[in-house]
Design goal:
The protein has one domain: Ethanolamine ammonia-lyase light chain (EutC) (Rossmann fold, 3-Layer(aba) Sandwich). It is 38% helix and 15% strand. It contains nine helices and six strands, in the order αααβααβαβαβββαα. It has a six-stranded mixed β-sheet, with helices on both faces. Helix 6 links the parallel strand 2 and strand 3.
Length: 248
């Protein structure tokens, strides 16, 4: 027996969002297709959390730009998930290996909670970003395994960078397992608070585009350099690209 038809107004609403709304019902439960879709998305989210960061593929895609591979103090994925604090600090050997380069920007790519997001979105985002920040010097791109957001603070401090920009996989949801976030921190040091960062999130196909995200990020980076601060001290006054097109 086929599932009951969804009323037309709700069908139009469903077309506007990936959220699970107006799924219909079959007796006291959901239709089979909705149950199977839920199970598939749940499996994708779990896979994204446990997928290993493919540093070799990232290095090849980013060539000839130099890359450095580091890891946090979390020995493996189990440690990473159970001990968030270990993901915020560099492994001792990697911390000692990072040498100051007095760059404007330290670019960090960290797996976070979705290496899938990194594999799909990090390189296209950087390719869109580089032409927009030619006036800022960048150190080697740091590829970080078992990374939390705050790991970028220690990396930026070790490199002597004026700011750190960290690309990291977001916590997967049941509508998106490949969503990328970017966190920018001025004058990175161990112990920085989240209030001292600016964040751009939901960068992916079906979310915020690479062009829009890179334009906003470049604006924030330039504004942070002028102000000498980020986070709550830096008001995001960037106008979306669509607004630029509409302006006289």
């Amino acid at each position: 027996m086929s599932a009951p038809a969804i009323p037309e107004p709700l069908s139009r609403l469903r077309a506007l969002t990936e959220a699970r709304i107006a799924l219909g019902r079959c007796g006291a439960g959901m239709p089979t297709d909705a149950v199977l879709a839920f199970q598939l998305d749940h499996a994708r989210a779990r896979d994204a959390v446990h997928e290993a960061l493919d540093v070799e593929a990232l290095q090849a895609a980013l060539a000839p730009r130099p890359c450095v591979v580091v890891a946090s103090r979390a020995a493996d994925r189990r440690d990473y998930l159970r001990r968030p604090d270990l993901g915020r600090r560099l492994a001792a050997a990697d911390a000692a290996a990072l040498q100051p380069c007095a760059c404007d920007v330290a670019l960090v790519i960290g797996d976070g909670l979705s290496a899938t997001a990194i594999h799909r979105n990090a390189v296209p985002l950087l390719q869109a970003l580089f032409p927009r920040i030619g006036h800022l010097s960048c150190g080697p791109i740091v590829l970080a395994r078992q990374a939390r957001v705050a790991l970028g603070d220690e990396i930026g401090e070790r490199l002597g960078a004026a700011m750190v920009v960290m690309l990291i996989g977001e916590r997967p949801g049941l509508t998106a397992s490949d969503s990328l976030s970017v966190y920018m921190t001025w004058d990175p040091k161990v112990g920085r608070d989240d209030s001292q960062r600016n964040c751009i999130s939901n960068i992916r196909s079906g979310g915020q585009s690479y062009e829009e995200a890179s334009a906003r990020l470049a604006w924030l980076m330039a504004a942070a350099a002028r102000l000498g601060a980020a986070g709550v001290q830096l008001k995001d006054e960037y106008r979306p690209m669509a607004a630029h097109l509409d302006s006289p």
